[in-house]
Amino acid sequence: MGSLSTIEKLGILADAAKYDASCASSGTAKKNSIGGKGVGSTEGMGICHAYTPDGRCISLLKILLTNHCIFDCHYCINRKSSNVRRARFTPQEIADLTISFYKRNYIEGLFLSSGIIKSSNFTMEQMVETARILREEMDFRGYIHLKTIPEADPELVHQAGLLADRVSINVELPTDSGLTRLAPDKNARQIEGAMGKVKSDIVETKDARKRFKHAPRFAPAGQSTQMIVGADAANDSDIMGKASRLYKGFRLRRVYYSAFSPIPDASAVLPLKRPPLIREHRLYQSDWLMRFYGYQASEVMQATDGNGNLPLDIDPKLAWALKFREQFPLDVNRAPKELLLRVPGLGVTAVQRIVAARRHRTLRLDDVGKLTVSIAKVRPFICALDWRPTALTDRADLRALLAPKQEQLELFAS
After folding, report:
1. What SS3 class is residue 78?
2. How far is CA 22 from CA 17, 90, 181, 324, in A?
3. Number of H helices and number of E strands within the chain?
4. 16 DSSP 8-state letter
5. Spatial distance between the Cα atoms of 106 and 47, rounded to a whole number of angstroms
6. Facing residues of 224 across strands?
7. Which among 336, 340, 344 is positioned nearest to 316, based on CA atoms?
8. How many CB atoms lie within 10 A of CB 136?
9. What is the pTM assigned to this prediction?
């Protein structure tokens, strides 16, 4: 390990970090380096892309401190029993890499995670030291996301939150039984306890800043978590229920879903192949319904099949509408915003435009078509001045009509 060059370490530890999906940078506080003071700004191999609240795509150095680990989680390529090439950075090396990449305009921030070496506290100390060097010695004002370790001392996690824009703690698996079976070194109550402490620290510092102008910030971009999909027997209803409880209980900024990917020298308790990626996509869509469309988790679960899984051929919003056709059609000129958000094909922006436009005139079908991307999915579920779907909403083949057409792509098509 000592003979590895920086480039070799970067190749190993950047590749090992690719399995963590929770590296978005939305919600961070704005910082800049105007006036020649400081380095880095969230305003203006190991590199991933994330999106800011205004839609900008930015680049992050996504890397592990080390892929050594004393834990033996079955689903993790870096587990203790895994036969992979190991490497380890020092805090100073990661800080130097971050600044070097930033000055070359490769990145705008850092996402740092780690395997657990020696102990949870020792590893957390190394991650905090990395952030401290960047903030205090190098005056780096770019985005920093630290993946904290729930088994570490709460004071170390608190220090991480004072230095980072966002902290995250992975719950790993949707059910306690799955975590016990596949990650015997982890404890669900300990993970949730650490998330609860981060939540209370965020609330306390926000309250302090209302009273004291110069009170320190604590994780201004909030906290997030990640769940692995398809490694255990948990169905989509289990996953959505867990996500809903996490949002309500810990005020998470995001829950990320990562489809299980088979790894070399896999444990015999793991599935032989990964779940379809479209399943991960449907879970993100259901997450959006709960966060932005006013659906309760129990309502989204009603869109699942008999096995508790979301359909793969249509999105969960359409699946729910097809199961509850008695709720439709809705009059776009009279229905409240909350109900219009349940119309398949109408997004949040389209509904806002409809509500604004109908204040000035009675809307026709063509008017709605101009306010949304596609009118085809919308037509069976709405009424307008010149449009009634009549029997269209109740057609037995409506699902087949609205499901995306499967198309075989041609490699050499002109």
Report:
1. coil
2. 11, 23, 23, 34
3. 14, 9
4. H
5. 8
6. 168, 254
7. 344
8. 10
9. 0.88
Kindly state the DSSP code that residue 18 receives in the 8-state scheme. G
User: What's the Cα-to-Cα distance from 347 to each of 162, 289, 350, rounded to whole Å?
Assistant: 37, 10, 5
Query: What's the pLDDT tens digit per position in 276-304?
Result: 999 999 999 999 999 999 999 999 999 99
Q: Among 348, 349, 340, which Cα is nearest to 384's?
A: 340
Q: Quickly tell me which residue has 């479209």 as its tokens.
A: 278
Q: Which residue has the tokens 């490769």?
A: 106
End-to-end CA distance of the chain: 51
> What's 226's DSSP letter?
E
Q: What is the DSSP string of 88-153?
A: B--HHHHHHHHHHHHHTTS-SEEEEE----S-HHHHHHHHHHHHHIIIIIS-B-SEEEEE--TTS-
CA–CA dist 353, 371 (Å, integer) = 7
Query: Which range among 31-40, 126-135, 387-396 shows the weakest confidence by mean pLDDT?
Result: 31-40
